[in-house]
Amino acid sequence: MLKLSGNFEHFNELDFSRKMFKVTSNYHLPKVLHQDCIFLNKGNDLHPNFDFQLTFNKKNLKQSNKNIIFLETDFKYLSDDDVLVLDSKTKRTRVLYRTNSPNNYILLTERCNHYCLMCSQPPKNIDDSFLINEAMELIDYLPRNLSNFGLTGGEPTLYGDQLITLVNKFKVFLPDTQLDILTNGRAFLNQNYSLALAKIKHRKLRIAVPVYSSNPITHDYVVQSEGAFDETIKGILELKKLNINVEIRVVLHSVTIPDLVSLAKYIVRNLRFVDHVALMGLEITGFTRANFDLLWIDPWDYKDILSEAVSILNDYNVPTSVYNNQLCLINEDTKSNYQKSISDWKNEYIDECKKCTKILECGGFFSSAVQHGYSNHIKAFKNEANQI
Description:
globular; 7-stranded mixed sheet; TIM Barrel; 2 domains; 16 strands; 388 residues; single chain; 7-stranded parallel sheet
């Protein structure tokens, strides 16, 4: 599991409270381009001209009048064009973008109007509005050929018009970048708010909205908010009336699995116009750890239910993907919908996987699953015929 945030050390006093940098190891980068860059020392020698430099050698801290930042070796994965932010008050750094990762997204807020049983980012009632300002600034540092990027929370729509402004900046600066926003969708039942988003005309925008059951009571229970189901469905309808791309997300656990087939039928009867459905395995972090006994179900035990739900969605040509599960735990008829999906920084494989002939096709595990629990039915594929 990659470390995306941590402490740093420095010797000379830094002349900023918080600053964003693009990482470079280009020794010959013209000085005029140094201002927003931090030089990555891959050896022991410091650069003679860069004002800000990263080092993994603690001896370098006192060897220069430059701003030398010492990081632990956990950050040695950093490479050219990565983006990080340094906070001199807390002496903390966070990596906001990694050029070698296919899974880049940024947290906009920890605030939320839901309290989901399995939330991986438990909500906090705090003022963290600096995060959306940080996202606005980050756009200036991102490559113009970036294929995809995600905005998550908390609940991003709690920012109201600020979120609309952020989406507009993405559209202006990164019009060809697939932009995914994870939201509970309730704010979009407001026609004016949905219309404001539609007026941006971001052709690569997708709104990802969780729906956990066809039964309003079950959905509301999962998100711990009465009336959530009705407002979420109305939000989806408003978005689709304005031709905005919508993905429905379903996290698979012991509360949602019993209604999964009914939910698939509900979608094909009432929401067949959505652009994608994602059926997602459970990440054992955040509230899931506290509610593990309530939520855990072995994917092996629901593979037939998953097959039936996928079959229904496929029959009605609703684009559907299965995320965050392991190939050896799904039926053959589901494999055409299977996607490797776990973000690379928290993706691991267990010893049994290392002898599997299909390891390159399998998404493996969340690091949290390796640590806290996974199926007892993991079994390596052994040959070209994919026999287990």
